[in-house]
Amino acid sequence: MNKNTTNWIDEYHKGSRYGLEGQILIDKRSRFQRITIIDSKRYGKALLLNGCWMTAERQEKTYHECLAHPALCSAGDLKRVLIIGGGDGGTARECLRHSALEYLDLVEIDEVVVETSQKYLPTLGGSIWNDQRMNLAIEDGVSWVSKAKNDYYDVVIVDGSDPVGPAKGLFNKEFFENCRRILKTNGVFATQSESPESFHEVHVETVNLLKNIFEYAQPLYGWVPIYPSGWWSWTFGAIDSPRFHNPINSRIQDIASKCEIWSPRWQKGAFEAIPACIERELEK
Amino acid sequence: MNKNTTNWIDEYHKGSRYGLEGQILIDKRSRFQRITIIDSKRYGKALLLNGCWMTAERQEKTYHECLAHPALCSAGDLKRVLIIGGGDGGTARECLRHSALEYLDLVEIDEVVVETSQKYLPTLGGSIWNDQRMNLAIEDGVSWVSKAKNDYYDVVIVDGSDPVGPAKGLFNKEFFENCRRILKTNGVFATQSESPESFHEVHVETVNLLKNIFEYAQPLYGWVPIYPSGWWSWTFGAIDSPRFHNPINSRIQDIASKCEIWSPRWQKGAFEAIPACIERELEK
C-alpha cells in the first residue's frame, strides 16, 4: 500500500497492483498488524490488514457466502460452529443467518480488528455482536483448536488472511489436524485456500495437505475482485462422506433467497470449475 | 492508463484500477484506437487498447481457451470457422489446434493490432500467420457478417473489446441476428460477454439478447486476472440443441492435454457457476 498517493490505495502483489480510489480514514498498528480503513468510491468502506485488501462494505458477499454456506448447509447438525479469524464479522453474519445454528465461537486474535470493524464496517457484522448465540473470544486460534475437545464442533471455519504474519499458523499440518480432531464425524471443515493464480504453490500445498488429513477434501473456485487476481478458492473437508456436495433442503430454504452469489447450482459448478493445470497438480 | 507513472501501467475502471509494473514499449494511435505494448514483470509483454488490458504473454490462456474450446469441441463440423476481432492471434491459435478445422476466417478491423501483435507478442499467434487453413481479412466484422451467406459457418466467435469504440457494433441485436443467420444449424456461436461484476448491466443485457436470438444460449463464468474485477464471462449459442454442453470426445483428445484452464470438467462447472443474483436477473 502506497501512502504517498492521495487518492488511490493499492495492494501490491508480485509486480501487479489493485487499487481503489478513496480516502484513508484510519491507519494504525495493533499488536499484530497494520490496520487500515478507507472510504472508497467503488465499494464503500474497506479494510486492509498489512496493506492487503480484506473486505469492503459492497464487495464482501463473494467471499463470505462462499466460505460459509457450503459448510453450514451440509453439516449433519449445527449445534456448535467455530470460526477462527473473521474478526470483521462477515463470516459470522452468514453463519448466523442459519436458524438451525445454536452456538457460535468466533475466535479472533486481534481485538483491534473487531473494534475497528464494529465502528467502521457495521454492515459486515450486522446484528451479530448482540446475537445470543454468539461467543466472541479474543484469542489465538491455533491455541484454541489445540485445547478444544475431540468431536466437539459441527462446523470449523478458518477465515484467516494470507499465510504471513498472524495468519501463518493457520496453514500447517498440526493446525489442520487439530481442526479435524475437534470436528464431529458428521461435521464439515472449511478454509479459505488462497488464489490458484496469485498464490499457486500455497494453494496446491494447502489442498494436498487437507486431502491427506481429511477423508474427503475438495477445493471450490470463485471470485473476490479485491484480492490478487480476483480468482479465489475455499477448500472443504469432511470425515464420514463428501457431504459438502449435498446441501440440505431446509438449510437452503433458510438462506438462498437473499444470497448474492451462493446457490446450490453455483456451488455445484464452483466445485467442478477447477482449472486443468491445478487438477493435474493435485494428488488424487 | 496513466502515462505519468514511470513504472506502473494501470487500467482505470469506475473507481478501481489494475496495474502491472513494467515499461511502455510502444504507445501509438491507429485509425481506430490507441495501441500500447508494455513489457511487464508479472506477465511478460502485454497489449492495451484505449488503455484497457487486452492480453499478455503469460496471462492469456484463461481468456482464449475459454472462448474457443466450448464452441470448437461441440460444433457438428469444423469445416469453416469465423473469428470477428481477435487480432492478437490468441483465439485463432486455440482454434487451429483442432486438427478437424479446415478453414478459418479471422476478420480484424484494425491492421495495426495484427502487425503490433505479430511483432511484440509472437507467442500469442504462434505459427497461425503461416497456417494454410487461415485467411486473415482486415475488415469491419459487422459488415462481414452482414454480407456472409446463410448457413455458412460451423462456428462463429466474437472476440471483441468492451462495447465502446470499434467494438461497439459487436453488442447489438442486428449483429447477433446476422451471426445466427450465417451459422449452420449444427453450429455453435461464442462471444465474450463482459464481467458480471464490473459490467453487470452489459453482461445481463447481452445474455438476454442472445437468449432471444438463439434457440439455446447460456453464459459461462471464468477468470481473466488482468480484466476489471478478474471475473469474466463468455456466452454460447446454438440452434438445434444446447450442444455447447456436449464436447465431442475426439476433439477433447486433440487439445486437452495442453490446456491450462479448459477441460470438459472445468467447462461443465463454469456453465453452472452462475452467481445467484445474475440467475435471478436473466430471462428464463
Description:
Two copies of one chain form a homodimer. Chain A has two domains: 8-56, Spermidine synthase, tetramerisation domain (Spermidine Synthase, Chain: A, domain 2), CATH 2.30.140.10; 61-281, Rossmann fold, CATH 3.40.50.150. Helices cover 30% and strands 31% of the residues of chain A. Chain A has helices at residues 61-72, 90-96, 111-120, 122-125, 141-147, 173-181, 200-213, 249-255, 264-272, 276-281, and strands at residues 8-13, 16-29, 34-40, 44-49, 52-56, 80-85, 103-108, 134-138, 153-159, 183-192, 216-223, 231-238. A seven-stranded mixed β-sheet of chain A has the order 8-7-6-9-10-12-11, sandwiched between helices. Chain A is globular, with a radius of gyration of 18 Å. Chain A starts with 7 loop residues before the first strand and ends with a helix. Strand 2 of chain A pairs antiparallel with strand 2 (16-29) of chain B.
Features:
Rossmann fold, 284 residues, globular, homodimer, 10 helices, Spermidine Synthase, Chain: A, domain 2
CATH second-level architecture of the largest domain in chain A: 3-Layer(aba) Sandwich
The main pleated sheet of chain A reads as: 7 strands, mixed
What number of domains of chain A? Answer: 2
Radius of gyration of chain A: 18 Å
Output the strand order for the largest sheet of chain A. Answer: 8-7-6-9-10-12-11
Number of strands of chain A: 12
Through-space gap between termini of chain A = 39 Å
Oligomer: homodimer
CATH topology of the largest domain in chain A: Rossmann fold
Unreliable runs of chain A, pLDDT <50, ≥5 residues? none
